[in-house]
Amino acid sequence: MNKQELRTLKGQLLLLGMMFAGSVVLAVFVALQRGFFEKFIEEKYAQLPANLKPLADAAAEGKLDGEAFNKLSQAERLILYDDWMTRPSPPPVHTPSLLVAVDSRLYLARAERTIVSGSVEQKMRALKFLELAGSRDAIPILRKARQWSIKRRTIEMTAKITETLERLERN
Amino acid sequence: MAESVHAPAKTFTNRVLRVLGIRVRPFRALLRAYVLMDFRSQQFGRATASKPKDLITPLFWVVGQYLLLSVIACAVLFARVDAFFFALVNLGVSMLVIGTSLIVEFNEVVLDAEDLNVIGHQPIPLRTYSAARMTNLLGYVLLMTVALNLFPAIMGLGLRDTGWMYLPAYTAAAFLGNLAVVGFILLLYTTLMSGRPGDGVREVLAWTQTILIMIAFYGGQAIFRDSQDRFEMAAYNLPDWIMYLPPAWLASFVDSTAPASDGVKWWILGTGVLINIALWTLVMQRISAAYARMQPAGTAWQRATMPALKVPGRLGGAITKLLSRSRAESAAFWLCSTMLRRDHDLRMRSWPSLGVIIALVLLGLFTGQLDDPFVSRNPATSVLPIACLYLLAYPLPTIIHNLNFSRDHAASWLLWSAPIADRVAFAEGMRKAVTYRILFPLLITLLIIFSLVWRDFWHALAHVATGWLVVVGAGHATQMGVLRKFPFSSPAARGSITGSIALFAGIVNTTAMTLGVVHYFAARSLPGFAIYFAALAALVFVLRIISQRVIQQRFAAVASYE
Fold first, then answer.
1. Touching check for B414 and chain A: CB below 8 Å?
2. Pick from B174, B109, B103: nearest CA to B145
3. Nearest in space to B67 (alpha carbons), one of B140, B136, B138, B143
4. pLDDT in tens, B473-500
5. pTM of the model
6. How far is B369 from B362, CA to CA, in rounded Å?
7. Which residues of B touch A150 (CB under 8 A)?
8. Least enclosed by CB within 10 Å: which of A133, B101, B276, B295?
9. Are B123 and B2 in contact (CB under 8 A)?
10. Residue B490 pairs with which residues in a beta bridge?
11. Chain B: nearest CA to A151, how far in angstroms?
């Protein structure tokens, strides 16, 4: 088909058809690549600055200097969560309960964010955080996350949320 | 006679048409002509700078643009959000765009008074004409709906929470939604308003689509870079009022077809179908009545004359006098200002180049990335306000170059024969018309926005003053690189509108962006910024002197031929 023929009505409809056919192929290809797209869904955590290290280490040992903590900005407080999330397994058991005790709204919301937009490993670690925090305020968060997870058919995640939820409800 | 107008009822379609009382041959001829006219669409031709006889026609660009918009939206949402939010955003975008598209293309697809001048003397019954028009309209809606929803309909199948039912459910929802929007707009215009949208509304909406694509493109990047995952959290914690919006009802139906849902909400689909039937029954009646009311020489509802010009002999008012230094400068300033105000084609070619700046400002406002570069050291939040200022250089080559073209280019002999001795002043008047009429108001808007967001007027003023230097500098550079003849003296030929200055515009933009990087680092200290500001002012001054010399030499050569 030459340029002249492409300029006719039939030619133009053919061009449109070709564009749609190409789009269908591309759309099918992308739809089959969910795993590839999911690889990019993960949280990035800030590194712990030297001035916060003593506080983070003390929290890991079950001691938190309340006065020093109260002087921290919101961003600095969140770095303590980031530090806990990036510590090698098993993570310190005391930190979550101490952090949630001093600023429950901030840390529960932060953990909820990880459950929504973190990678699978990060989500599991966030659930561990909520479990170790032992706060009953985490129950509605987990119930909502469970519904969301069931709907999204993330079976392993749903099982872990259910387990965490049961433990919290039992306490 | 009956045989000549009725094609033999051999095919099923022909039989249906005859049963409906529609004459087959005129119907087919009209429909073919309308499809051809769709490809040559005037409004989008202006917006996409393509000509009716280009190999890639305006309609083709529009379909491509819609596919691009939907693929960007899907790429941003895919795997990040659940099926409900995925369907909600895509259906919402589709309904918004089809609505703006219909208003922009109203003449071409719904009601064109020129039809009567062309086919009024032909023996075409009203019913046949109405049927051809409505079929063409529905074909147009079908084409645009496919372009806007092809990617979400297929890519949605790859989401975690969807099953095979998603594809037919989403397709049905998209068609229901778009048909309802189109029906509602048609009813609104044929019942309550003047019968057709005004030029201003159509212009703004054509531009809205361009901005929407830019927001999708830049917004997508912002989502990928947002360390606080605000988008994902917004999708997770949707506000209750969302459920009052029609796209949310349709998305709820689509979502209910998921394997893990409690049951398919067929009632939403059924209600949607009934609403569409009722709406379109009314629309058919109103549109047929509008066709019946069409008058010969039906341009009667269009404005017969352009707005009155100022009194002859007085070039512009106080603003022109204030901004220009000589009569030649005043003449160019007045001419370009007037054409920018009156010439619809020129505005449609020029405005989209401003879209990127507006899109970035909106993006910065909504994502909290408009921090004061004097205060914030976080590049993620302080680069955007600087980029907004330096992107002001981007529209200048395009708009000043566009001033070369006009439909009425044949009248440019007036300029060639006019006693314009000082060509430098004339070129300066052109530059000032673009900078003061278009970019200066934009800078003032940026000053207000930055002052409010940063709560520091002086910081905002210092940055915007730098933006003004960028605008003036880019203007002088464009005078050197683009101005070669009197304005409005060339026809807008294929490829000449953007092709010939693409390289020059690229150089101007790259230079501006490089300066933007220097600005970012200079803003870290007050002395550093002062030095940078002084250096930029010196650069602009040098550009001004060079551009004056270049224009003098260029037009001295031209004058020797005259």
1. no
2. B174
3. B143
4. 999 998 888 877 778 877 765 445 555 6
5. 0.67
6. 10
7. 260
8. B295
9. no
10. B405
11. 5
